[in-house]
Amino acid sequence: MICAVLAGCQAVPGEGPLTADIKADAGQSPVQIGRIDAAVFDIVKVDNRTAKLVSDYVVTALNRRFGIGGGAGRAVIGVGDQLKISIFEAGADGLFSTSDSKQTNLDVVVQQDGTAAIPYVGTVRFVGKTLEEARQAILTALKSRAVEPDVIVTSVNTASRKVTVSGAVGNSSQVPLGLVGDKITDVIANAGGPTGQPYETYITLVRGRKTGTALLSSVIDHPNENIYVQPGDQIFVARDPRTFTLLGAVKGNARVNFGASDLNLLEAVALGGGGNDAAIDAKGYFLFRYEEPDVVMSLLGTQRFNELLGKGMKPDRVGRYPIVYSFDMTHPDSLLVGQTFPVKNRDVIYASRHKAVDLGKFLTLIGTPLGIASQGAGVAYSVERIGN
């Protein structure tokens, strides 16, 4: 009888999967699940190690991808740069001096082949040289031609040393880089600054074939994330109020705004009013996320990661992989661990209902008809007695 009741529970309408259902599908291929279109994922338990690994990665996304380097690097001349070259001579009647002036100023633009022409010197290669190296090259060529020459090379317009900043900033523009080097916040400030709050503003840096995205508040709070930009980088600033979705056996199913610079798992659940005491499975809190591949491999190990790829695990359009974090609220330390596990934009937090809820529904469904039948039998019996 009990087995029949439990089997019947499977046919009861429910609000999402049970804890056992989610765990049963984890790590299974679509064939094993019996659905050819099923997404392949794995479950990771949220504990101290998991929370620290995920938290550390969130605050070092740009540094991991691009590296902060050893500083600004060498500021070199590039194609399109405009230079002012001042040539001095000791004599009054030299190649570049007269009785009125002992200097000549030349404005040159570095051509596509990386060179520019200097009178009485010829073609000089500038690309890849610092201003001092360019100065020495011109000076060396003039020593046998001019009278005690000296040279000053000044950068007027650094067309090759610019970063494009666009999006939610005061003035989308190409920002020239200084000789001492500029960081992300420097070039954003030079473009008029962000138009939104740091905790809802995302920065995407494109460098060659690499792309990295980080929250502006994370860049501000963690100096290692405020990396040096390089000539040709593209920075896109987007205002996107961060939200997460809360579903399942909670007091309020909704899409919720962060409303703060950061949010942990416990705070996110509390924003939805907490779990429904009459229905919640305290062992069945799950956070569904598409996670960075580095994090997934660190959590699962390379062997398990490759195994899941073989079963059909697919990345999203930006290369992140599906992962489900499991959180057990029956453990006392969950109130500590939950404070250190960061919630990210577009996360889905699902609180599973307890299996007893389905059992109660099933008993209600089968009990209601029986009650009606019993009442009907009683009425028939009474009528029979009155008739007699």
Automatic annotation (TrEMBL):
In terms of InterPro entries, this protein maps to: Poly_export (IPR049712), Poly_export_N (IPR003715)
Instruction: Show the Gene3D superfamilies listed in the entry.
Output: Outer membrane lipoprotein wza domain like, wza like domain
Report domain Polysaccharide export protein N-terminal positions: 76-154
Q: Which residues cross the membrane?
A: none
Q: Which UniProt keywords apply?
A: Signal
Name the chain's protein: Polysaccharide biosynthesis/export family protein
Which species does the entry assign this protein to? Answer: Rhizobium puerariae
